[in-house]
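Handout for the seminar on molecular recognition.
Each group receives one record of this type.
Step one: identify the two inputs.
Step two: read the structure output and locate the region that could contact flavin-adenine dinucleotide.
Step three: write two sentences on what you found, then compare them with the reference statements printed after the record.
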Amino acid sequence: MGQDVPRRIVVVGGGTAGWMAAAALVSVLPARRVQVTLIESEAIGIIGVGEATLPHLRQFNETIGIDEAEFLEATSATMKLGIEFVNWARIGDRYVHPFGDFGADIAGLPFHQAWSRMRAAGQSGEIGDYSLPVRMCAENRFERPADDPTDFASRFGYAYQFDATRYAPFLRQHAEARGASRVEGIVNAVHRDPATGNIHRLDLDNGQVVDGDFFFDCTGFRGVLIEQALNVGYEDWSHWLPCNRAIAVPSEKSGPTPPYTRATAHQAGWQWRIPLQHRTGNGHVYASDFTDDDAARQVLLDNLEGNALADPRPLRFTTGRRKQFWSHNCISVGLAGGFLEPLESTSIHLTQIAITQFIELFPVTGDYKLERDSYNAHIAREFERVRDFLILHYHATERTDSAFWNYVRTMPIPDSLAEKMALFRETGRVARYQQGLFLEPSWLAVYLGQRVHPNHWDGRLDVIADAALDQSLNAIQSDIERAIARMPDHDTWLARLATRAEDSRHG
Ligand SMILES: Cc1cc2nc3c(=O)[nH]c(=O)nc-3n(C[C@H](O)[C@H](O)[C@H](O)COP(=O)(O)OP(=O)(O)OC[C@H]3O[C@@H](n4cnc5c(N)ncnc54)[C@H](O)[C@@H]3O)c2cc1C
């Protein structure tokens, strides 16, 4: 073991971020190299919202050794194939951003190129008609993707919708069973080495003292280490993403359980609907410059599909990120590192990236400089790419019915997004990134769903006759319908899973 490996890693905060970090560190790094201690305070509590996720969480759970069936049961999870956006480009519009491809390449070119040409000729359906997960959402079906990569039914992914208050306790059991220790208390003083500025000791309100070599700040919006002690500063992106408040409420279930999250645009924000096994999660995310709290609460309650199960809970946030995610011997993970509103369910994913990126750089060198610079650049890029993708949802609108929509439609946008949109409009090509969360199908779903259509398609398609393209499109639709016909509905799938879990407990 190198001398500089930090042995004692202290995680401050026991929300989703803190327990994800602790569980990953003890599951992936050898115990002889690290001791993990997590400090949390029941008096402060966790934010406890954050119910929709992205498919990458499956990989995280798998890597740290979590059994999927146990996880689904413990968190009352349902399956998620994408997000349905309602009223975004125009009131009455709907589209799904699915976890999966549209169609399949035609003549070696991305499917949407052929689709654009056939659409211009008035000979195609909606782009979603050529996506298996979009059609599964429409039919309320679910099955895991096929293992055989040549099977059309292998070409999609899935994520989870889960009870956010249950994931952290589930991870806690997992982490403690693998050697993480937990300390109850509130950190009220942070001691730093005068020579290096590194944190080395934390005082708790109950008189305990915790020493460490490396620290994870998972204290949520407070940023107790990264901001209150290390003062790294915050980059505020509210001018691009003006929503800054949310009001959340659970409601009774009504009807079959959809295998997708819904985001319905309102006059000054939007409302989520996240179906769980036992209830539905709802929240109205809004911009306080364009509406007031009472009106926002009323919009939420007026648009519930079942009776409210609790009093609505208000939350406030500032969209943006820490100027440095890693400073001295401390990294900020989860809400402590920054927050982008939950429109594309990216927060837990950014938490996952922050943790896995640290683990990839481990063991770190003495002064952390090389790792810190690379880490800060990497996480900043991830945040910026998610930011641009979120801005697209607001900016690419034709709505003129409120001051909020007029603002986001006409506001200046980051150059990185403006260039990407111009390329798509002109050529139908989606700029490719080497890194970054959202790939071509995601950008396509939102461009086309928000009525951003390319002016041209790939000229190589012009040598193919309409009839041949038509046949290819029809063949794809037939593959999709055949695959769907074999799938159970989502509730049946969940019930089978519960029966299997019950059987394995008793047998
Ligand atoms: C409105 C809204 C909707 C969201 N929806 C989604 C979604 O759909 N999908 C998604 O991926 N994410 C979503 N998120 C984000 C998600 O909630 C968070 O990423 C996730 O809960 C992680 O939070 P956290 O652990 O960073 O912070 P928290 O849950 O706030 O936990 C902070 C922890 O720090 C501890 N703490 C704080 N100060 C101290 C101190 N001084 N001493 C000791 N301990 C301390 C607290 O006790 C607590 O344990 C949403 C967030 C909001 C605001």
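Reference statements: The pocket of flavin-adenine dinucleotide is lined by residues 12-18, 39-41, 44-47, 49-53, 164, 186-187, 218-220, 222, 224, 246, 283, 315, 317, 334-336, 342, 345, 347-348, 351 (CB under 6 Å). The longest strand covers residues 245-251.
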